[in-house]
Amino acid sequence: RRRLDQTGRLGLALELADALDYLQNRAIEGHMILHRDLKPDNVAIDANGSLKLFDFGLAKIVKKRRRTGLNLPTYELTGETGSLRYMAPEVAQQLPYNGAVDVYGWALLTWELMALRRPFHELKGVKDFFKQVVRGGLRPPLDPAWPEDFRELAAACWSPDPGRRPSAQELAALMKMLVRNALNEEERA
């Protein structure tokens, strides 16, 4: 059985980060898979307590390009994808994007997992969402009871500037350390 206390939920967030790292870095040599529709309906916990990511109907396979300086290359991908609540601002604005869109989605989905409520539930309609979230940079509040490292990571992952978000590989590595630290703290308590 899976623990669903704070540390258990951080463990699920790690599994999702690992899945994104796999899709973007190891699934297909020389390519990355962008899921483009991270949301609660597309994840589940199996009988063994492991997180599973599914519904790749909007996923896109793109050839990896070399990183130039500090920026990851962007791709001219078109078409509306995903669910607005979890959608990165650059996708909502139909701008070029890259794997950072799934890192953004991870942050919103993980926030929901930690907070046990939907992000932006108070917003009324698409127009309000665009004004406050997409253009205004509104993000859900980060609970001070959550580990400081997690709060900092979530804030970095939902940065309005995709170039400031960690890569999926960096996200997975940081989450591994964070979960390890949380487990160590539990053992000491």
Automatic annotation (TrEMBL):
<dbReference type="InterPro" id="IPR000719">
    <property type="entry name" value="Prot_kinase_dom"/>
</dbReference>
<dbReference type="InterPro" id="IPR011009">
    <property type="entry name" value="Kinase-like_dom_sf"/>
</dbReference>
<dbReference type="GO" id="GO:0004674">
    <property type="term" value="F:protein serine/threonine kinase activity"/>
</dbReference>
<protein>
    <recommendedName>
        <fullName>Protein kinase domain-containing protein</fullName>
    </recommendedName>
</protein>
<dbReference type="GO" id="GO:0005524">
    <property type="term" value="F:ATP binding"/>
</dbReference>
<dbReference type="InterPro" id="IPR051681">
    <property type="entry name" value="Ser/Thr_Kinases-Pseudokinases"/>
</dbReference>
<dbReference type="Pfam" id="PF00069">
    <property type="entry name" value="Pkinase"/>
</dbReference>
<feature type="domain" description="Protein kinase">
    <location>
        <begin position="1"/>
        <end position="178"/>
    </location>
</feature>
